[in-house]
Write a structure and sequence with these properties.
This protein has 206 residues and is of the alpha+beta class. 32% of the residues lie in helices and 24% in strands. It has five helices and eight strands. It has helices spanning 16-29, 53-68, 102-113, 182-188, 190-205; strands spanning 7-11, 33-37, 72-81, 87-88, 122-133, 142-152, 168-170, 175-176. Strands 1, 2, 3, 4, 5, 6, 7 and 8 form an eight-stranded mixed sheet that branches. A hairpin with a 5-residue loop joins strand 3 and strand 4. The protein starts with 6 loop residues before the first strand and ends with a helix.
């Protein structure tokens, strides 16, 4: 995709935690792109009625592009726990019923995992799917996927991050995602991996 100087992209998210992480990642990537949030343009959330992370990311990107007339990038992300059939999955943000209630979502996850607790740690992975559309009806959106593998703790730990970060333990670091400083998290997270994949595609298309 050929980029012009100071091209503007809309980030199709009103989740302030995601916005902050993406801004840091984009800044580090030194893209010749100005990222603006859909909220700053008065664009509300899309109806996420897809059956997968990929479908929902595309839905959100098209929604933002249609409302803004600009290229749009969207992510759909969540936590997948194999012993729960990869739940919470696409319902991660509203697992307990109310969208964005991190404490309730974490509590429900811990409760649902009680029957599976034993001597072995419970494996889990974060998923991030990025979708970039050049315009609302773009027939060839760019799709990038990043995964971050870890384990689910028995109780929240750490004060940083958002969502399921306090329950997501990173064995190689001996810390939860919520115990990591922003720079450390942004170097290894599912969003970082997805963005690296997207950047590689953009460079190939340039």
């Amino acid at each position: 995709m050929n980029q012009t100087t100071a091209q503007r992209w809309v980030l199709a998210s009103n989740n302030q935690g995601k916005v902050a992480e993406f801004q840091a990642l984009f800044d580090a990537a030194a893209l010749d792109v100005q990222i603006i949030t859909q909220g700053s343009l008065g664009i509300g959330d899309a109806i996420e009625d897809g059956a997968s992370f990929i479908e929902n990311a595309i839905i959100k990107a098209r929604h933002a592009a249609d409302a803004s007339g600009l290229p749009a990038i969207a992510d759909d992300s969540g936590l997948c726990v194999p012993v729960l059939g990869n739940a919470p999955g696409i319902y991660s943000a509203r697992y307990a019923g109310t969208h964005g209630d991190d404490a309730a979502n974490n509590a429900k996850l811990l409760s649902d995992l009680l029957p599976f607790r034993g001597d072995e740690p419970i494996e889990a992975f974060f998923v991030c799917v990025l979708a970039l559309v050049r315009h609302a009806t773009d027939p060839m959106p760019l799709i990038a996927i990043g995964k971050w593998h870890g384990q689910v703790l028995t109780a929240p730990c750490g004060e940083h991050g958002f969502g399921y970060d306090p329950l997501f333990f990173v064995p190689s670091l001996g810390k939860s995602a919520a115990e990591l400083e922003k720079r450390a998290k942004n170097a290894i997270s599912h969003r970082a991996k997805a963005l690296q994949s997207l950047l590689a595609q953009l460079q190939a298309d340039a």
